[in-house]
Amino acid sequence: MQPTTKERILDEALILFAQNGYKGTNLRDLAARLELSKSALYKHYDSKEAIWNALLDKMEAYYAQRFGSMDNLPKAPDSLEEFIQMSMGMIRFTVHDPQIILTRKLLLTEQFHDSRVCKLATKHFLEGTANIYAKVFEAMMDKGLLKKQDPAMLAFSFTPPISALIHLCDREVERQPEAFARMEAYLRYFLDLHAVQ
Which residues have CB under 8 Å from 175's CB, separation 6+? Predict the structure, then answer.
């Protein structure tokens, strides 16, 4: 199915905002990329701010649907190996999905200029992922896979090393194989420390 004009506008806006930032992006360039007149662009969105807000809404929904959220939790694993496969799948999505790559770049650069983006960056780089994993860990404890402890603190200690290696994948693409190997090794190390023996 072909994307609608509104969807195409947001797709191209994500590219431009990720490359140039909010201030460095103008609607004339966006319209030109879409082969639309500026007035045609205004038929769908009445301002740059309207495009920006619609884009942030779309990014948040896209991530929640494909990665997970508190309203869309991943299935709790039934084994430690299933946990590793689930986590590596979430990591591969985060590192390789083109929209998520652009979203991460946009969040990193614009978090200092926009309070909504700042909150989204905190959610995606720390609290949102940690909250999801706290629920996963709690379910794994209930299934007898992990030692009983505070699942929120466990998730808080679990997510930063993974996040750091994901950012390494963004900065130095050629090191992705190394980063993925380190992430899987970290998952196994983490389970060695916290799994019920």
Answer: 168, 169
For residue range 134-179, what is the model confidence (pLDDT) as tens digits? 999 999 999 999 999 999 999 999 999 999 999 999 999 999 999 9
Give, as one character, the DSSP assignment of residue 172. -
DSSP string, 35-101: T--HHHHHHH-SSHHHHHHHHHHHHHHHHHHHT-BTTBPPPPPSSHHHHHHHHHHHHHHHHH-HHHH
Secondary-structure percent of the chain, ordered helix, strand, coil, rounded to 5: 75, 0, 20
Residue 43 amino acid letter: K
Q: How far apart are CA 162 and CA 124, in angstroms?
A: 12
φ, ψ for residue 49, nearest 5 deg = -65, -40
Maximal C-alpha separation, the chain: 65
CB-based contacts of 84: which residues, under 8 Å, 6+ apart? 184, 187, 188, 191
- Evaluate whether 14 touches 106 at the Cβ level (below 8 Å): yes
pTM of the model: 0.87
**Degrees, nearest 5: CA angle 9-27-2:** 15
Buried b (16+ CB within 10 A) or exposed e, 43-52: ebbeebeebb
Which of these, 166, 143, 155, lies nearest to 80 by C-alpha position? 143
